[in-house]
Amino acid sequence: MEIFHISAECYPMAKVGGLADVVGALPKYQTNAGHNTRVVVPCYDTKFKNENIFECVHWGTVKLGNFNFPFNVLKESTNKLGYELYLIEINELFNRPNIYGYEDDIERFVAFQIAVLDWIIARNKVPDVINCHDHHTGLIPFLLQFAYKYENLKDVKTVITIHNGLYQGWFGFDKLYYLPEFDLKHVGFLEWNNCINSLAVGIKCADAVTTVSPSYLNEINYAANGLEGLFNSVRNKSKGILNGIDFEVWNPLKDSMIAENYSINDFEAGKQKNKEKLCEQFELDPSKPLFSFIGRLFDEKGGDLLPQATALALSENFENLNILILGSGKPEIESQLIQLRTDYKGNYNVFIGYNEDLAHLIYAGSDYILMPSRVEPCGLNQMYAMRYGTIPVVRRTGGLRDTVIDFGDDGNGICHDQASVGDICYSINRGLKLFADKINFNKVVQRGMTADHSWERVCQEYIEIYNLIIEKNEI
Ligand code: GLC
User: Fold this and answer.
1) How confident is the model over 348-357, as pLDDT tens digits?
2) pLDDT tens digits for 164-217?
3) Taking every annotated instance into account, which residue ranges of this chain make up the domain Starch synthase catalytic (predicted)?
4) How far apart are the CA of 211 and the centre of ligand 1, in A?
5) Which residues are annotated as a binding site for ADP-alpha-D-glucose?
6) Number of domains forming the structure of the chain
7) Which residues are annotated as a binding site?
């Protein structure tokens, strides 16, 4: 089957969060399973773009209302990623270092979606499935069905995968003229709360809706930033599919970004070496238990709770605890975290920014990974951590609920229910006690290391959905 994944992010071309990891991995496994899988993302000015060779396979002009932007479709020449990667090059809109955060983000991603479809229709070969990811690609299922110029693609089946329902790509009807002409009697599909809501459009018009974990699918029926009712109404075409992780990239035995490779057979010694390297870099004491956080510093991830929870946990356990944070996000959270460095020197440190190599070393060298998320559609960090023998400390929500079981129930992690400073500190204290009980600590580690979160199995679940919508029009 010919499958297109359309997304704003794809690792290693362009990454902000977990969306990139999923779009960079799932297609590889779909290719391995015998499908022709292609990924299409905008052509940003990133390291990967600049260091790799691309060939131009199509060019045209994308029309966005009164504006006309020349565009090229570039194909990565070697297919070394395990699937065909295509970049939509619209220099005026995407030749910039960042992926999001510009005033014209709406124009950028609407133009991207139109250019993608202009190219697909020009190929004269109709794909079997287009899998859209998040709101940046939510207009595609609508345009395919109703825009006159894509008439020949109208029967292509579409799936929208929701990685984060908080962001929805809203814009006013004053920009309706950006869209290619369509029969106005269908305009209602575009509307949600008096706006054009790209994510809602995708949910309404796609043949199937997937979320990145089963629990998240349940949760968005009552908490989805205004889309609860819509999610309820499409329940019969929705499915929660837990993400996998790329076992080839995330393998402590082969990982070249860490200080010492190890497996479940020698994890104690291996992890200790990594911990020493990490602690040396951040002036911490490798004999103390190390709790780390990796991620975006936003309320959604519980980032706002981190400064206070860190201060409280450290002041209670100064003799016996290290905390390390890697991330960037809200400026006020960043500055509070930087401030804590002076108060807790030797026990705490923070790296503001993101660094893939450092993230790998943190997974390898930490004892615990903190994930106090308010919302977590799937969460990949807990799975990376477990694979590297690091115990996740999580709030039970979304995919965290589906992957982490408290060690009190013979599980692989530490869980709490509230997104609060008190709950985080309580869990840290439980972690400290467990750390002192090496036999049980190691059992929890081993349970995590043997969990099967590989993509092979997950990839099949996506293919089943594609087959169902192709054969029966329903899932
Ligand atoms: C988003 C979600 C995260 C999920 C990832 C990949 O970043 O916030 O929970 O794991 O997408 O699906």
Assistant:
1) 999 999 899 9
2) 999 999 999 999 999 999 999 999 999 999 999 999 999 999 999 999 999 999
3) 3-232
4) 10
5) 15
6) 2
7) 15
